[in-house]
Amino acid sequence: MSTKVKVFAGLGGLIVLAILVNLVAPSEGKNEEFQPQNEFKLDPWVELKLGPFDMSLNKAVLYLVLACALTTMAMLYVAKRMQERPNRVQTAVEAAYDLARNQITRGNMDDKLALKWFPFIGTLFFFILFSNLIGYFPLPVNTEHPVDILGVSVPTFALYAATANLSVPLMLTLMVWFGYHYEGIRHQGVRGYFKSWIPAGTPPAMTVPIFVIEAISQFVRIISLSVRLFANILAGHLLILFMGGGLVVLLGLAALGVFTLPIAIAFFMFEIVLIAGLQAFIFATLTSIYLGGATAAHH
Amino acid sequence: MTTHALETHGQAGGPGVGLALVRYLDLVALAAALPLFLLADLPMLGYTVAAGAWLLQRGINAFAQAKAKASEDPRTVVGLLAGSMIGRGWLTAGSIMAVGLAGAREDGLAAAILCITLFTIYFPMQMIVRPFDDPKARG
Fold it and tell me: Contact A235/A161 with Cβ under 8 angstroms?
């Protein structure tokens, strides 16, 4: 059978399946009850208010704790079982460690600075990686629609990630932002650091405009670094949510699921295999580049 | 980093009972859910269909993995694995929908929750177990 015939047979099969599903479960009309945005709503589980600050415990906090615990446990587990002839787990962790140390950190700054900042950058990399990864496992965190089991109200399963909430990437970004400015000033002094924002050879008349543009770009980094991580993870979760059943429920059209479910599975694999690691890599690499740039004498 | 080895065990440990338990933890959970369904008077039709669909998709996965392992053509391997993944998704989702339509909505809900619970256990466990697997023996 040629590829063309196989493709047409597959599409034909899909259409037949969709028709069959539509006959068994015809359209129920639009569903006004299901609010997809509520999947990302943070209901306080334990209310904690410290003056003007809402420090309530919610599912984002749970995901943060899980990511911290998993990062620590995984690294300690491997570190305590180091072998001369590494097994495949050790090889995989060593490869990730090597990537964080040599490619991400040492590739963007001098060795002395790399030695100092590697623990921070490595932790960022692994924490974001684990945080992104656990975001793709359905966990019982949806307190909006609980189910009753033996009289106990159990939350239903949902996909969520701490990094799909802007406040988490923003806090990580602010740590990076203040960290690299601190390191830049410590390295070059206040005057020297701000002077390093202006490229060598800039005509005197252009110094002020260039400085202003550079200052703006420094602040824009807060947005770009945090929103890149947040938006990528949120978009992935939204795609999985809508393709994996959200659209079917919203439109009340079961037959649509025949087409959207394979797309959801493809997105799920794409996110977990590529995006989770790639976003952690990008965040850590940019952190390293910013630190390296802040300590370099000139652009 | 290898040269900084803290301990030298010589040989990498082979798969043990613990690893097998982790690998089949979803099936243990499936068995453990049965008394819970009975005690809590949860819809047994939902349990039966979810359990059947889950076991069937596990069987399909094992079959596709074995076929993929036997094949040397990368396109066949990708086709088999991707096809089985999508097919298993349809099978599970279709079973949940069918039981919801044929029985009561509670049956469908129970089947959905059980299948998602099993997936939550199965998927991370496979990620944990995978690096311990001998590539030649993986199936």
Answer: no
A84 to chain B: which residues are within 8 Å by CB?
Answer: 2, 5, 8, 10
The complex's ipTM works out to 0.80
**What is the average pLDDT value for chain A, to the nearest integer?**
90
Question: pTM for this one?
Answer: 0.86
- CA separation (Å) from B35 to A38, B8, B31? 33, 45, 8
Model pLDDT for residues A32-65, shown as the tens digit of each residue: 888 888 888 888 889 988 888 888 899 999 999 9
Q: State the Cα–Cα distance between residues A94 and A76, nearest whole angstrom.
A: 13
Is the pLDDT reported for residue A160 higher than 70? yes
A82 vs B7, B97, B120: nearest CB:
B7
**Chain A residues near residue B46 by CB distance under 8 angstroms:** none
Position A90 scores a pLDDT of: 81
| Contact across the interface for A82 and B4, Cβ inside 8 Å | yes
At A1, the pLDDT band (50, 70, 90 cuts) reads confident
- Name the strand (E) or helix (H) holding A158: strand A152-158
Query: Are the beta carbons of B2 and A84 separated by less than 8 Å?
Result: yes
The answer to whether B50 touches B111, Cβ cutoff 8 Å, is yes
Q: Chain A contacts of B4, Cβ < 8 Å?
A: 82
**C-alpha to C-alpha distance for B20 and A245, rounded to whole angstroms:** 33
